[in-house]
Design brief:
8 helices; 47% helix; globular; 206 residues; alpha/beta; Nucleotidyltransferase, domain 5
Length: 206
């Protein structure tokens, strides 16, 4: 078997004005409120909470970086988004390795597919096996679940449980960190790759 590829991606919400322009739902204020100022405040709070989830939705965010690692040699893709995704898919098509990540079936791969549709990037023909993702994708969360439907665990908790380390931060802060301290953000992503690889080895995935 070829050396597996470990990967992880980080996303960034689109500006809230752009989100609201394209996708704003009908927000409703608390019906108990009567004061116009409090009603306006309530609606604004709901808009902000809605916007806070944007990084999880392909139509309201963008892929900021993708980290990939072969045999402990990590690379961070950080070019313009379409080119970055094309490179990622190209790497997938160019070999027969396992591609391993945490929660990749529930987030990373569906997200990249949807961004590809939006950006006009071709999705590899071998990405799917019928209605399922290719067997080349191995999700450490799914392996940990051991067949239990809907089993969830964070990478941090999985790493702690397996005794291979712990995360140094939270992914929800990545975009801000990327803007303020590029090197620290890269270190965070590289740690995620290392922890994912360590978990995969501990669970005998490879």
């Amino acid at each position: 078997m070829n050396t597996p590829c470990i990967f992880d991606l980080e996303t960034e919400a689109l500006p809230i004005a752009e989100q609201l322009e394209k996708f704003e739902p009908e927000f409703e204020a608390d019906t108990r409120l009567k004061d116009p100022a409090k009603i306006a405040e309530s609606l604004n709070d709901k808009k902000l909470k809605w916007a806070e989830t944007a990084a999880l939705h392909a139509e309201r965010s963008r892929c900021l970086v993708i980290g990939v690692s072969y045999d402990g040699s990590p690379t961070i893709l950080e070019d313009d988004e379409p080119k970055m995704i094309k490179v990622f898919w190209g790497n997938f098509e160019s070999d027969s390795s396992l591609w391993i990540g945490h929660f990749i079936k529930g987030f990373d791969i569906p997200y990249l597919v949807r961004r590809s549709y939006i950006l006009g990037v071709k999705v590899p023909a071998g990405l799917f096996d019928g209605k399922y993702l290719s067997r080349r994708f191995v999700d450490t969360m799914e392996v940990w679940g051991a067949g239990e439907w809907g089993a969830r665990i964070s990478l941090d908790n999985l790493s702690r449980a397996l005794g291979v380390g712990k995360k140094s931060g939270s992914g929800k802060d990545f975009s801000s960190l990327w803007r303020s301290d590029r090197q620290a953000a890269k270190s965070y992503l590289l740690q995620d790759l290392a922890l994912t690889e360590a978990c995969a080895k501990k669970m005998n995935i490879f």
